[in-house]
Amino acid sequence: MSTKIITRLSQERGHADHGWLRTFHTFSFASYSDWSHEQFGCLRVINEDRVEPRTGFGTHPHREFEIFSYLIHGEIQHGDSMGNKEVLKRGDVQMTSAGTGIRHSEHAHGEEQLHFLQIWAMPYQRGLQPKYYNRRFTDEEKTNKLAMIVAPATAPGVTDTREGSGPTPIHAHLYVYASLLSPATAVTHTFPKPANASSPATKAYIHLIQKSGYNTGPAKGGKILLTGDGQTMELGEGDGAYLSSEAGKELKIENVGDRVVEFVLFDVDAA
């Protein structure tokens, strides 16, 4: 089976400007609906949000989702019905395993705009006890390498504690990597075994973070080139791509632009 690369261009995502919140939706979310982009494996939401200072999402409920935030710029103030209250900064990955139900709020803290990815995944088991986790990953840990920032709670090296070292636990078949890639530099990712042993392919998704601003037109800023099985595809900031391939095959990710780029790579439904 050959590697497949299908682009999800930035200007084709759902987007909205609410004044206090400017956002892009990779998958159907809120008032944005597109049957061809509902979810990808267990991955249900990738929202790239910019929240103005002293504003945010008031207290609201969730259940049966694994919800996490990847902080890009600014600070986020979190509070929830489990008693967790804290301010998170760049480098932090915050995970809420909603399970049977939680309520939480998220606000931009301080005087700077908050820029973060809000990501939801569907759990591999329903009815779990709600839990909250926080991990920190420095820019150095992500520079010119793929840093594993999220992994299944049962995977080797993952500690099921609120804070700790290693990847952030998630109750889903999902691994997430983050990278800061310098110009003319490349990293290689090997497709893992799928969680479903009868599946011939493993799926992944890559998103190039939109560091150059809230651009509703064609992608601007940094660029990466994806190469796998002889196929190539160039992505700009805000662009993403659906990926599928056999376990063991490799994907090369190369920075072909003039600035450092930041991206996240999701191994979706991986064992």
From TrEMBL:
Pfam families: Pirin. Residues 9-120 form the Pirin N-terminal domain. Belongs to the pirin family. PANTHER family: QUERCETIN 2,3-DIOXYGENASE. This is RmlC-like cupin. The lineage of its organism: Eukaryota, Fungi, Dikarya, Basidiomycota, Agaricomycotina.
